Every structure is written in C-alpha cells, then in structure tokens.
Amino acid sequence: MVGAVFVATREVHVSRLQADHLYKVFGRRPDEAVRRLAAGADREELRAEGTTAAVVDAGFTVEPGQIFVVMGLSGSGKSTLLRMLNGLLEPTAGRVLFDGRDLTALSPRDLRTVRSTKISMVFQHFALFPHRNVLENAGYGLEVQGVPRAEREVRAAEALELCGLAGWEKSWPDELSGGMQQRVGLARALATDADLLLMDESFSALDPLIRRDMQDQLLVLQQRLKKTIVFITHDLNEAMRLGDRIAVMRDGRIVQLGTAEDILVRPADDYVASFIQDVDRSRVLTASAVMTGGATPVDCPADCACQAVGPDTLVADLCAVAARAPHPVTVEDSDGAVLGVVPTERLLAVMGGLGARNAEDADAKEVTVGA
Fold first, then answer.
1. Domain identity same for 248 and 308
2. Structural domain contains residue 130
3. At what angle do helices 178-191 and 149-162 cross, to 10 degrees?
C-alpha cells in the first residue's frame, strides 16, 4: 500500500524592506576596508589612511505600513544609508531586499524601473521645477513612468488634495510658502502610489511651527494610506513623534534600534542617554512603559473614586491622575483587567530621565524605606 506523503509548509514572512549587513566605504581599497571593519578595525584608523567608512554593518527590517526613522547627528551616515536603500549609491558590501527582491543584484535598467514605480523619494530642499506649475510638479513622477497626461493630471490633483493643496494646481512654486512647497514634494511622491517612501530630512528646512504642521500632515496621511516610510532626521523629538521604530546612528553604525519607549527608557549607551536628555518624555512614554507588576493597591478603599488608566495613556496625562491618587495608579486593559501599577517614585524617576534600571532601583528603595 502506498501512503500519501504530506509535507507541512509554513508561510515565510517577508519584510517590505531589509538592510542586510550594509557597508559603504569611500576611498582606496574599499573591499579591504570592509574586511578590516568586520574584524574590529576602528573607523578613525581607516580615516587616517584616507578611507572613509560612511556606513558600517547596518542591518534592520521595515514592515509594511511602518514609519521607520533613522536619526543621528551630521556625519553619522544616515543619508548615505538612505541612498543605498534605493540604489542611488551602491553598497560596498551587503544587500538591500525590497519585498524579498535583492536590489543590489538588479541590472541598472531594472533598478531604474523599481525606483520609478515602487520607491519614491522626498528631498530636504523641495526639488521643485520652477518652470512647472504645482500640478505639473506633482505629476512629474508619473510623467517619467510614461503615464498619459489626462491620467497623471487626475492622479496628481488627487495627491495634492490629500496634502491640503486643492485649488493651488495652477500656481507656481515661488508663489508658495516653504511648507506648501514641501507638500507639493510629498504629493509628487504619493501620486506614483509607490510602496515605499524615502524621506531625507524632508522637514528640516522648515520653520518650527510649519515643521510640526508637516509632521501632523504626514501622520494623518499615514493613518489613511498606510505607506511604508523610511524617514531620516537629526531631530530626536521628530523621530520620537513619527517613528514606529527608530534606528540611532553614530559614526556610521546603528548603536540602538527600537521603539521610542525602548530608547527613552532603556538607552543602549551613554551616547544615546545624552542624546535623549532633553526629550519631552511626557509626550512619548505611555503607562505601559513605566508600570510595574502588581495588583490594585491594598490601601485603596472599596469606595475609592480614583481613576485607572489604559496602557496607552501618555505620561503627561498619567501625571495628572497620579497627582490626585493617594496610592500608585492602576493600569487596566479595555476589559478592566489589571496590567500593573505606576508608583509615584517610578513615574518621577522615568520623567527625570533616570532610565529603566534606575527607576527600578527607585522602586526598590521605596519598598525598603516603607518596610
């Protein structure tokens, strides 16, 4: 009797974008420099020999619909890294996978096709054509794709409306404010309906109020469109506000990778800790990031009218609740189940930037003193 053989298969997860051990070296003998860097050579040692290691062993994944922020000071390698993600710069070593496809193995023609149809870029300095009106600028990417004029005008107008520029189609770039010009650049990227948006310091040239308005605009668009975005910035507050995940770069290397809460509560080293020192934690951290294990406080009277909070409650709002409560604030899920509590001492420690370990020490000290 011949029995049937069934082979269990498991669906393989493919990230929208994956950077796999990326290196970019400028100067003499770049391949040798990569080998030395992989063996532990110092970046400054290579620089003394006339070789610049702009990106060193960078690796991360970006999931569909995620805003992935790469942040760091000038010279940290973030813009070089971004330009390797769409093939504007060829990696010295490593791979870039887009929907599982190795971009570094594509022919120049195939790579141009991917860039024109699947990946859009929003630049820092608007990059608008002064001799084209707003509608023509917004439709330029579609023109490169060979989309007929009637169709590209419709799609460009729709993208402009999404970006709050309906009625400005026939205006010229020099008639717009800086924020409006940047919205045209964003509309141009959206009009192509690309799967991936790369944004290189896109808001850094704007005044603070306009910059925050553009951040709001991007978040509203993201809720509706669910694009996959890689966003480059040197502004930590911007990174914390926009990023689902954040990569912190220093001297060409990614020194920490995680959520805004991970980085604020558990900085990887003294460099990251100093970087986040002035961040407004109350507008980033949530109750789930600062709570400890535990049940409803034993000293809470049965008729206590104190307020519990949800795990996503911002610390800014949590502070107001804690100020009214005579005991640690209870954190509950949507069904009313207790997830943990937030002692006042821990709340103050995290708000003061002590980090998770020091905050836990503060909790321990509270228990010891109370005993």
1. no
2. no
3. 130
Phi, psi of 34 (to 5 degrees): -60, -45
Enclosing domain of residue 322:
282-370
* Three-state secondary structure call for residue 296: coil
Coil/strand/helix, residue 258 = strand
**257 and 268 inside one domain:** yes
Are 313 and 253 part of one and the same domain?
no
Q: Last residue of a domain, which of 257, 279, 301? A: 279
Residues 17, 9: Cα–Cα separation, whole Å: 24
Q: Compute the Cα dihedral for 240, 307, 354, 361 and give only its sign.
A: negative
127: left (phi over 0), alpha (psi -120 to 50) or beta: left
Compute the chain's Rg from CA coordinates.
25
Instruction: Give pLDDT tens digits for 217-269.
Output: 999 999 999 999 999 999 888 999 899 999 999 999 999 999 998 898 889 99
Domain count, the chain: 2
Within 10 angstroms of residue 174's Cβ, the number of other Cβ atoms is 8
CB-facing half-sphere around the CA of 148: CA atoms within 13 A: 2
